[in-house]
Amino acid sequence: MMIVEHKFVEFMPEIIEDGVLYISLDYGTVIHNCACGCGSEVNTPLSPTGWKMSYNGEAITLNPSVGNWSFDCKSHYWITNGVIEWASTWSDDRINKIRKIENNERDKFYESKKRIPTVIEISEKQDSEESLSKKKWWLWKLLFGE
Asked: In this structure, are strands 41-45 and 5-8 parallel, antiparallel, or unpaired?
């Protein structure tokens, strides 16, 4: 069992120590050296469609698992309450399928953020036709002063 400690930082240090998770809440990222010991630096950006971090006052948990598919080691592990838990090795086919699913989910999430409902769309969902007509009239009057 491998235990990792954590350090909350504003900026990442030049030298990343083995067995330490460096967490910058200001920049929404967690960096550590690969748990397999290969020396590769692992960046897990925190985001609605990426990794999530929880802190229980003593230890850090990252979700989902850390799959270092771009590294030669292709290590795969979970970080749960400050403990590295090794996960199964994935085939290239499985990795590619998961990447495609994640990319589609990310695209859908951010596409939905781009579209801002109009006042009329919001009104249509919440009100009857009669009150909608009144709100359109007031909106028209407010916007164009007529």
From this structure: unpaired
Sign of the torsion formed by the C-alpha atoms of 84, 89, 93 and 97: negative
pLDDT one digit per residue (tens) for the chain, 146 residues:
899 999 999 999 999 999 999 999 999 999 999 999 999 999 999 999 889 999 999 999 999 999 999 999 999 999 999 999 999 988 999 999 988 988 988 888 888 877 665 555 555 555 555 555 555 556 555 566 65
Helix (H, G, I), strand (E, B) or coil at 83: strand
Q: Is 120 left (phi over 0), alpha (psi -120 to 50) or beta?
A: alpha
Q: Give pTM, 2 decimals.
A: 0.73
Parallel, antiparallel or unpaired: strands 76-80 and 83-86: antiparallel
Task: Count CB-CB contacts under 10 A for residue 111.
Answer: 9
